């Protein structure tokens, strides 16, 4: 398996007029006008203009397109000066002739013979694509050696961006100067992130400020996320005054937030309303609930505060405020009108 080492910026040497030169972006460019163009990019940045991050060990795919039939040469330049030649290589199907308008992927999706794996050191790295209408002789840059372990890829015999630039300048000098061109793509190698070892629980309820307990320990209010929980099973209890507690068993996995969404049910209690007037109509918070019969009316209510109003013909209305907690009895007697 071929690994791409971290690529470094190209620091290429300048040359005489009409010879390869170096742009402000430190890439080898052709000073002679040409209608040949090449574009290279990575799988994380189709525009080729950004510098996406790749973790060490992550696989990368490269893409190349040309506007004319051209032979394409791909190089990776490492931060430490190490150079890898991606193309040409000897793996099946990976010849370096790219047809006009064709987009080539390296490695090809249907070619499992190799992969391109990002390696260190960390830093901003660069891929150089050189396209030529005619094949180039790279003997002074790289060689395919039968004795090497990875025989599908050439061994690059130069090291460092300056040496590569000088060698490429010599390679392209014999050919017509309007028959080649270059492009580069950058990406940033970063250290792989350590795998997450903890997870989180988020609790949401219909009662704002309900108290949350995890393994019988109060941890905060509903509407919150409780992080840094080791993977495992937890008992979650949500409690609020006047509501029935809800208990759930939750399994937490590393790197995952578990959502606990519950609806608390209001606790109910029995309230008996006594009065001296049978047939009096009973209103609870403005809603009629029944009439007094045999001197009383019994209601089942949520635990809350209520206004109780009794009305009857010929009597002044009776009003009482009551807090229903554990149930009980209240008396609302009515006085006759004068």
From TrEMBL:
Residues 1-18 form the signal peptide. Keywords: Signal. Residues 54-135 form the DUF4384 domain. GO terms for molecular function: carbohydrate binding. This is PEGA domain-containing protein. Residues 199-266, 269-335 form the PEGA domain. It comes from the Bacteria. It comes from Deinococcus yavapaiensis KR-236.
């Amino acid at each position: 398996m071929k690994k791409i080492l971290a690529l470094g910026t190209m620091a290429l040497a300048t040359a005489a007029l009409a010879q390869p030169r170096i742009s402000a972006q430190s890439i080898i460019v052709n000073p002679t006008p040409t209608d040949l163009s090449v574009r290279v990019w990575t799988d994380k940045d189709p525009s080729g203009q950004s510098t996406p991050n790749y973790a060490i060990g992550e696989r990368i795919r490269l893409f190349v397109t040309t506007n004319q039939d051209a032979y394409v040469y791909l190089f990776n330049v490492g931060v430490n000066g190490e150079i890898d030649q991606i193309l040409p290589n000897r793996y099946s199907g990976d010849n370096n002739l790219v047809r006009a308008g064709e987009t080539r992927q390296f490695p090809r999706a249907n070619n499992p013979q190799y992969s391109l794996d990002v390696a260190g050191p960390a830093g901003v790295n660069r891929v150089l694509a050189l396209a030529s209408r005619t094949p180039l002789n790279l003997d002074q840059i790289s060689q395919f050696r039968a004795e090497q372990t990875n025989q599908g890829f050439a061994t690059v015999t130069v090291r460092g961006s300056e040496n590569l630039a000088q060698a490429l300048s010599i390679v392209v000098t014999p050919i017509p100067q309007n028959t080649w061109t270059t492009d580069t793509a950058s990406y940033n190698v970063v250290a792989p992130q350590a795998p997450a070892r903890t997870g989180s629980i988020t609790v949401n309820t219909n009662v704002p400020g309900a108290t949350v307990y995890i393994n019988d320990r109060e941890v905060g209010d509903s509407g919150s996320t409780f992080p840094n929980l080791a993977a495992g099973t937890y008992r979650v209890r949500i409690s609020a005054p006047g509501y029935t507690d809800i208990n759930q068993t939750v399994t937490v996995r590393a790197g995952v937030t578990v959502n606990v969404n519950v609806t608390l049910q209001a606790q109910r209690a029995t309230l008996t309303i006594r009065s001296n007037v049978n047939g009096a109509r009973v209103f609870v918070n403005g809603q009629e609930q029944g009439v007094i019969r045999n001197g009383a009316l019994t209601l089942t209510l949520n635990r809350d505060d209520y206004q109780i109003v009794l009305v009857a013909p010929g009597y002044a209305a009776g009003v009482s405020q009551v807090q229903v907690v554990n149930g009980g009895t209240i008396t609302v007697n009515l006085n006759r009108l004068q």
